[in-house]
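Project outcomes to date are best conveyed with an example. Our students and postdoctoral researchers have been running inverse folding experiments weekly, and each run begins with a structure described purely in tokens. The record below, which covers 257 residues, was selected by the lab manager from last quarter's runs and is presented without edits.
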């Protein structure tokens, strides 16, 4: 039979950020034992499958190392089931501990619901429950910062003259998951005093440290602020050579690290 509205049970510790559709009338939550009751009145009697959005928020305590995923229930419903999509930004890593009766679900099964997600987070995991978990939580979440990963590729372009070649170095750096304040680049010792980085608006300082025993010079580049994402850094060095009788050119190009 059609209904004029429903009441939604909100777990303790959560506050309602936003709820209801455009024409719904949502009243202030009523405090009850174990949480709150959120009354939602419809503009007219409705039946069938209804999608009532409810956004909850909860500030994580400083001493907490886990998050609990709450289960919302419609008061008086014959049966409460549901799917929970967990969105996590790329720089965080997620581990889950599912409650009894809760199982993992394919992501596309959740995406078909058409739930809007406009932030930078991505859908990381979906779980489904067919009955209410005993403690009201479908899962425990363990959230950790992901380790920074840096990927780099080096292209070198030669401009050859009669007695030397100027080498243009293009260092393409891709920083993922967490930003970095500094970047170390190793250069063969044979380029000591000859290798130089070009100025870059995001780089505030460039220092080199020579280790003759290892045959390397390490350049430390300091960024203006923590950098995340792609960055192209340019450098230059010269290579002297002599023309060979066979008209060949002996130019030693060295790899950079």
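After processing, the design step wrote out the following sequence:
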């Amino acid at each position: 039979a059609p209904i004029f509205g429903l009441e939604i049970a909100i777990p303790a510790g959560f506050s309602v950020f936003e709820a209801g559709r455009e024409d719904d009338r949502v009243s202030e939550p009523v405090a009850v034992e174990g949480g709150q009751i959120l009354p939602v009145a419809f503009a007219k009697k409705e039946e069938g499958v209804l999608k009532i959005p409810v956004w909850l928020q909860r500030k994580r305590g400083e001493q907490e190392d886990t998050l609990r995923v709450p289960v919302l229930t419609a008061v008086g419903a014959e049966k409460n089931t549901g799917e929970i999509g967990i969105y996590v930004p790329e720089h965080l890593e997620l581990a889950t501990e599912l409650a009894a009766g809760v199982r993992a679900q394919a992501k596309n099964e959740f995406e078909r619901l058409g739930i809007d997600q406009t932030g930078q987070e991505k859908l990381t995991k979906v779980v489904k429950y067919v009955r209410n978990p005993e403690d009201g939580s479908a899962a425990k979440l363990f959230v950790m910062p992901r380790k920074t990963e840096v990927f780099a590729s080096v292209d070198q372009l030669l401009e050859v003259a009669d007695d030397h070649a100027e080498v243009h170095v293009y260092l393409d750096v891709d920083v993922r998951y967490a930003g970095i304040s500094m970047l170390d680049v190793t250069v063969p010792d044979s380029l000591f005093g000859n290798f130089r980085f070009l100025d870059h608006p995001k780089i505030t300082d460039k220092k080199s440290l020579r280790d003759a025993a290892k045959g390397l010079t390490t350049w430390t580049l300091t960024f203006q602020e923590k950098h995340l994402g792609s960055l192209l850094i340019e450098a230059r060095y010269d290579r002297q050579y002599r023309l060979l009788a066979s008209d060949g050119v002996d130019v030693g190009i060295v790899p950079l690290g």
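Confidence is low (pLDDT under 50) at residues 247-255. Residues 9 and 37 are 5 Å apart (CA to CA). The training component of this project remains on track.
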